[in-house]
Amino acid sequence: MIAYRTGSVMLSQQSRMPDIQRWFSSNPIQGFKESTMPDAASTILVVEDDTIVRMLIVDVLEELEYTVLEAEDATSALKLVMDSGNRIDLLMTDQGLPDMKGTALAKKVIELRPDLPVLFASGYSENIDVPPGMHSIGKPFSIDQLRDKVKSILV
Fold first, then answer.
1. Are 74 and 47 in contact (CB under 8 A)?
2. In this structure, are residues 86 and 44 in contact, taking their beta carbons and an 8 Å threshold?
3. Residue 44: phi, psi to the nearest 5?
4. 104-125 tens-digit pLDDT
5. From the CA atom positions of the chain, what is the Rg in Å?
6. Which CATH architecture has domain 2-30+40-154?
7. Does the reported pTM lie above 0.70?
8. What is the CB neighbour count within 10 angstroms for residue 77?
9. Which residues form the Response regulatory domain (predicted)?
């Protein structure tokens, strides 16, 4: 679930993507462009194995005018990180990835790019042992919570 100011979008196993895409296109996020946008376009790598959740996060971040790279697992994410042509300003990863835990991915990424900030997004955020200097946000999170967390990390 990703909450919106006046309601919620609840997702089940059935694909509701056409309805969600229609909703986002007819209900743009208001007020973000003027007051909350980064000074320079930042690139966020989103690593999430749930396709619908990943698409929603990517849609929100793109609406906030971030450039977004996406990966469905740690292996794909590492390939994107190792490609020196990819500018990445923030790694946002789920903890429960199919091929390795998000914390293990973060440690490998930090070996390659030591200054890259990391944001863990997990439904089990209270149980994540977040390494020092890294950040977390619990699922479900609101659009405002995601915006504020990302903005605070990238400042």
1. yes
2. no
3. -115, 130
4. 999 999 999 999 999 999 886 5
5. 15
6. 3-Layer(aba) Sandwich (3.40)
7. yes
8. 28
9. 43-154
